[in-house]
Design goal:
With 111 residues, this protein is mainly beta. It is 12% helix and 46% strand. The protein has 1 helix and 6 strands. It has one helix spanning 98-110, and strands at 12-22, 25-34, 38-42, 52-57, 65-75, 88-95. The chain has a 6-stranded antiparallel β-barrel. A hairpin with a 3-residue loop joins strand 2 and strand 3. It is globular.
Length: 111
């Protein structure tokens, strides 16, 4: 895993509900960190690397943001370990609305 200094885009802590679609059906989770290039969704779904996603992020007062992405990694953990290591999926952004990138800029301005 890369250190933050080596990353091209800074990660920001975020915890916001999201929903996403997989071929198996609708799923829910939480976006727990985000960068301009991708994000991590805390979820128990079993999406495989390479899966294509359509993600909807609800961030009031903005309208829902629709993003598309590709699963680049999946992290699974036993329920007894979920407080130590959150299960979920790393998503590389394929498309995102301008409002998504504006939120990231706003986060950077507040740091």
């Amino acid at each position: 895993m890369k250190d933050d200094e080596q990353r091209q885009y800074k990660r920001h802590a975020w915890r916001i509900p999201c929903s996403f679609q997989l071929p198996e059906g609708d799923q829910v989770g939480f976006v727990t960190n985000v960068s301009a290039r991708g994000f991590f969704i805390q979820t128990r779904c079993k999406a495989e690397a390479g899966s294509q996603l359509v993600v909807v992020i609800e961030h009031e007062p903005d309208p829902p943001m629709l993003l598309t992405g590709t699963v680049v990694r999946a992290r699974r953990s036993h329920r007894s370990m979920s407080s130590v290591e959150q299960p979920g999926i790393g998503v590389k952004i394929d498309t995102a609305p301008e409002t998504f990138y504006q939120l990231i800029l706003d986060m950077e301005d507040k740091e």
